[in-house]
């Protein structure tokens, strides 16, 4: 399965639209947003797709965002998602809770841990868990997303044209 990973959009709809279009063009089948969505307008970009998101530290009105997402059929998982896709167990968090991140890495029960928050790309393994940060679509010199092929474990970072 090809998973499109994005994070830290901070209500920037135009670049989010471009990022999702790029991931779709590269064959993404499922989309995961690692937090700091920013607004309902960004959630709208996930509507109609197989998608899920978590909250980031800058997602202020969480109740409203969650209600809105539910009404348009987008899965909101609060601050943590535990997903199973194509036989892989995937933890999704924003990355602003170091204690949660550490507990997940100690447990070693996920194939992947997807996070954002730092606005910096990351691809690193701790034991069996591969930690991936796609970079950011706001406040980053290069605006990037990631495409993960769970079948081959291949990860590709993609730069989004502005």
The total count of strands amounts to: 11
What is the 3D form? globular
Q: Separation of termini? A: 27 Å
Continuous helix count: 4
Mean pLDDT: 96
Classified in CATH, the superfamily is: Metallo-dependent phosphatases
What is the top-level CATH class?
Answer: Alpha Beta
* CATH topology category name: Purple Acid Phosphatase, chain A, domain 2
> Which architecture name does CATH use?
4-Layer Sandwich
Poorly predicted regions: none
The percent of residues in helical segments reads: 10-25%
Order of helices and strands: EHEHEHEEEHEEEEE
User: Largest beta sheet: what is the strand line-up?
Assistant: 4-3-2-1-10-11
The proportion of strand residues reads 25-35%
Number of domains: 1
For the CA atoms, what is the radius of gyration? 14 Å
Structural class: alpha/beta
> What summary fits the major beta sheet?
6 strands, mixed
Task: Set down the secondary structure blueprint.
Elements: E1 2-6, H1 13-25, E2 30-33, H2 40-44, E3 51-53, H3 62-71, E4 75-76, E5 80-85, E6 88-93, H4 98-107, E7 112-114, E8 122-126, E9 129-133, E10 144-149, E11 154-159
Parallel strand pairs: 1-2, 2-3, 3-4, 6-7, 7-9
Antiparallel strand pairs: 1-10, 5-6, 8-9, 10-11
């Amino acid at each position: 399965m090809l998973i499109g990973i994005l994070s830290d959009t901070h209500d920037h709809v135009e670049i989010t639209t471009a990022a999702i279009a790029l991931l779709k063009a590269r064959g993404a089948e499922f989309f995961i947003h690692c937090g700091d969505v920013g607004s309902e307008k960004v959630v709208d970009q996930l509507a109609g797709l197989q998608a899920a998101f978590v909250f980031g530290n800058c997602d202020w009105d969480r109740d409203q965002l969650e209600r809105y997402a539910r009404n348009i059929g987008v899965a909101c998982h609060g601050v943590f998602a535990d997903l199973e896709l194509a036989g892989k167990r995937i933890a999704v968090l924003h990355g602003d809770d170091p204690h949660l991140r550490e507990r997940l890495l100690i447990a070693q029960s996920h194939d992947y841990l997807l996070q954002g928050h730092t606005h910096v790309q990351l691809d690193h393994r701790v034991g069996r868990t591969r930690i991936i940060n796609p970079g950011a679509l706001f406040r980053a010199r290069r605006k990037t997303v990631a495409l993960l092929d769970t079948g081959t474990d291949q990860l590709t970072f993609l730069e989004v044209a502005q």
